[in-house]
Amino acid sequence: MLIHDSCQAAIQACLDTKTFAIARLFSEEKTMRIHIHDCYEVYFSIAGGKQFLIDNRVYEVESGDVFFINQFESHYLSKIDRDNHVRVVLSIHPDYLKRFSTEQTDLNRCFTYRDPILGHKVNLSEEERKRFMYYIHKLSEKREFGQDLLDQTVFLELMTFLNYVFISRCAKIPGSARDGAHSVPSPHQSRIDEILAYIDQHLVEDINITMLASHFYLNSSYLCKIFKDTTGTTINRYITAKRISRAKALLSEGRPVAETCTLCGFGDYSNFLKAFTKAVGVSPKKYAAYSRY
To answer: In whole angstroms, what is the distance from residue 119 CA to residue 131 CA?
Structure first.
């Protein structure tokens, strides 16, 4: 399997294949500005000494740290050790991971559950680090016949291992055992899937929590709770992320910025400009220019 030397290249490969991609990055690799993208991300720090910002929560990064980031969470390295900056980043398409989850094993768990204390971060023991790198090396080996199946098998072993570590860590925190150890998909998944589909189909409209709660005959607070428990993000962040994702696609097709703003449901251009620039790292106009090359 190809190991990319750029985060952007790995993300694009993940989105193109709708599977997963790996990047191994070193000190000279320029980091991306604050951004979101349409795939999960596993960030493993081989050599630490940095600071990570995920949805306005700051984490000190040490060697052996693993971060789990879902497709709705903005993130970037806010402080970098230029001389000691080695990491492995996995980009994973959410639909691909969902395909392999079962009633007993929810492989999305590490991306959707957020313990108040652990948050997005788990530090691996020395033995766990070796095991993580063992899987990465297996994925980077050159193979010919059956390579796709072998890579898929190793990838599933890796994600099962990472979820086991994540769930085990959560279970050790007082008050988190029941939630953290729970590996069965949310009992509200079918209802949340309906809500997600509704949001996707009505992005151009003025969607808000009160309207969604009324449409699905739910209490607003209860809706927010089951949505966050199931997806790992809030309703407002999900809506914004989906609108920006659609905006990126429309801009890449050559649609004008003002038209894109309207077609994505941003009623106000200044809000669109601010949200897009914060999430993607460049303005809509610059993104449109870049995507044409």
So the answer is: 23
pLDDT surpassing 50 at residue 99: yes
Burial class (CB in 10 A: 0-12, 13-18, 19+), 94: middle
Closest CA to 8 of 248, 183, 206: 248
Q: How far apart are CA 63 and CA 60, in angstroms?
A: 10
Q: Return all residues near 19 (Cβ < 8 A) that are at least 6 apart.
A: 93, 96
**Rounded to an integer, what distance in angstroms lies between the CA atom of residue 108 and that of residue 12?**
21
The three-class DSSP label of residue 45 is strand
How many whole angstroms separate alpha carbon 285 and alpha carbon 292? Answer: 11
What does the alpha-carbon distance between residue 17 and residue 36 come to, in Å, rounded to a whole number?
Answer: 19
| Residue 66 · residue 43 · CB < 8 Å | yes
**Rounded CA separation 291/293 (Å):** 5
DSSP 55: T
Three-state SS at 137: helix
Backbone φ and ψ for 115, nearest 5 degrees, come out as: -70, 135
- Describe the chain by its helix, strand, coil percentages, rounded to 5: 50, 15, 35
- How far apart are alpha carbons 175 and 222 in whole angstroms? 21
| Phi, then psi, of 196 in degrees rounded to 5 | -60, -45
Q: Is the pTM of this model over 0.90?
A: no
pLDDT tens sequence across 107-163 = 999 998 888 788 899 999 999 999 999 999 999 877 788 888 999 999 999 999 999
Residue 287, number of CB atoms within 10 A of its CB = 20
Q: Which two tokens stand for residue 205?
A: 């409209």
| The 3-state secondary structure of 93-104, one letter per residue | CHHHHHHHCCCC
Report the C-alpha gap between 16 and 33 in whole angstroms. 22
